[in-house]
Amino acid sequence: MIFATKALAMQELGRLEDLPAEYVDALRAQNLVPLWPSLRAVLPPGQPRPNTRPICWPYAALRPLLMRAGELTPMEKAERRVLVLANPGHGLDNMKASAAMYLGMQLLLPGEWAPSHRHTPNAVRMVVEGEGAWTTVDGEKCPMSRGDLILTPTGLWHEHGHDGTEPVVWLDVLDLPLVYYMETSYAIEGQRQTQRPGRGDQAYARGGLVPTPVFGRSGNAYPMLRYPWAEARAALAALAADQPALEAVQITYVNPETGADAENILGFHALMLRPGQTLRLPARSPAQVFHLIEGAVAVEIEAHTFTLQAADTCCAPGYTAVTLHNTLADAPSCVFIADESPLHRKLGVYEVRN
Ligand code: GTQ
């Protein structure tokens, strides 16, 4: 959406203190409030004033605290053993990385099981470390390896298990703040799922080639639940090699049957920075989260520069340009990006500023 940018000076409006206290009390007694003292706060001139601050959560600081949670709190007392990556701009207790995004680092120890449930918020997992864990989503067992993206879309049953020998950690990204704000957030507990045969990551393993049901449609709103990192990385490497002049070597995680975003509210992308590359992402309305899968990247957001090592996570408010610099001269770096773009597009508020 494009707004006229011709700036007119904004009129100073009357304050609450300018009104007789007895009048304000009479209004409040009828559950009424005057708009004009708050008008500039809810409709600020030119652009929003986000509470979302540029924040970085280095994995080296987070990991020992997460492992301690593993010692302090057994699974039965946690259900999901998660440390929430909270943005202080929203208040730590509100569990928001941005207005619509929740981030959590979840730990599952060998032999543990996080019981089956389903809920209205959409979630994805980005696997950070460890082998041998799996998430069963809607009956499909999805193995978890570093960099894999696994969807648990709204309403689908999911549970996590671990047959390996080392701790497994993943990053949860949920649209919980938005769904909670809408007063639509709830969960239902369930029984252990029976696993069904079939894997979307096999059926949809080749771009541009999709299974064609002859005897009726698959009927799955979410035909692909697991996006292996090996495939995503290969797609990025092939794109980088095929198009040497391409500035942004980026892919989007989509529904392979419709081409639409993989989930309804948040968007997910992987970006490869060429050795030494600096890439400026224009200011766009959605807030963004950057999680470094491999390499080393300096992320410049407003006055902040975060130097991301592998497994580090940071966030940027919307309406803000972000510059990414691959500090490796001889190897690519790969970044997982979560953003609020599907939501903004659906609501008609999506903007690119420059
Ligand atoms: O793994 O199902 O970080 O339900 C927050 C809520 C993870 C999960 C979170 C959840 C989950």
From TrEMBL:
InterPro entries: Cupin_2, GDO-like, RmlC-like_jellyroll, RmlC_Cupin_sf. One of its GO terms (molecular function) is dioxygenase activity. It comes from the Bacteria. Keywords: Dioxygenase, Oxidoreductase, Plasmid. Transmembrane segments: none annotated. Residues 105-173 form the Cupin type-2 domain. This is Cupin. PANTHER family: 1,2-DIOXYGENASE PROTEIN-RELATED (PTHR41517), CUPIN (PTHR41517:SF1).
